[in-house]
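Narrative of activities, Objective 1.

The group set out to show that a structural description can be obtained from nothing but a protein's sequence at a throughput compatible with the screening campaign. Below is one input-output pair from the validation batch, recorded exactly as produced.
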Amino acid sequence: MAIVFFYASLGGMKGITYTQVAQYSVLILAYLIPAFAISHQITGTVIPQFGFGSTIANGPDTGKYLLDTLNALNRDLGFSEFTKAFGPGSKSMLDVFCITMALMVGTAGLPHVIIRFYTVPNVRGARLSAGYALLFIAILYTTAPAVASFARYNMINTISNKEYVKAPSWLKNWEKTGLIAWTDKNGDGIIQYASGKPFRGKPKFTGKTGTYGERLLKNDMTANANELFIDRDIMVLANPEIANLPAWVIALVAAGGLAAALSTASGLLLVISSSISHDLYYRMINRQATEKQRLALGRTMIGFAVIVAGYFGINPPGFVAQVVAFAFGLAASSFFPIIVLGIFNKRTNREGAIAGMIAGITFTFVYIVNIKFMGGHAWFMGISAEGIGTVGMILNFIVTIIVSRFTAPPPQEVQDMVDSIRYPRGSGAATGH
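Output recorded for this entry:
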């Protein structure tokens, strides 16, 4: 928190741009190097995307396809098949579609991504940088499913039905953090990993002996056979250690995780600072504000945002994937429709944009809070909180278009500016149009 506050408040746009280049280099290397190594270790194929669909190269499952083996292991342990997409016990096709759509359009609406286009000198540079960004994002996103399959295969093979006294060191190391916990329900000294919750709640580490107190289901051995708790947030960091990779690779992954956090946080803090100090305070409240006053307000807002973000980092409202999905859903339901309509529909005006954003983000936010914090259920067509941003996006589009049609059109200079964005000066010179 202190590091992010320091260079976000002092470095500004230029400082954050340079630090993000370094952070992203660390991030992509830290993510891909272990993926290459583990893919080669399990399947003999270096490229994770190919290893994902390959056969296992060594061990008792040699010659079997990785995904077929994972399906069989999951069935034996009482879980649904690893590759099962829809049906009982899984999300519906509509919900998966909405989650995917929210993640996709939410990326286009993330404010710290949008503001990156101010760091390039011209349109050509913006397009080129966007192309490279999409290339690296595609590499990361297509690697993720392979990493997940490798991690689950290694995790099950190293601890399931193994004696606890002979358990691998990674299990004992992560137990000390309270993010993995084991209780011997049947007293046989064997780690039984199966479906079901082994604890009444999330275990909390209370000492060097690994006692977890009242949260263990000590008096309810018939509830389920599962004896192992694993916090899902640790899997990316624990994956190299589970695969028995060298210590430097484990350290590299930890550095990559920190780089990802710093990169995203710094961009968002810059957006928060400039939005409040310039767009809100200077342009709408006090047009006589000096640059020094705006800079002081911006740094104050950075400090406030860092404290709020730090609190939710220590007390997260969900595991990482859920929180990310919420953020992307809110971006999809607020900024994305306005960006699209602002470029492709000259009739869209300020009143319509404001009304659409308020309607979209309010609906999405209330739906998420109702399900995740108030015990509500997914009442709208069974769509989960992670996918409701798609519905909020559609609502935003509808409200923006309707309100814009019933209010005054934007000034002519704004419509001309939209034309200049869609058809840059000189774009038709070669054809004579």
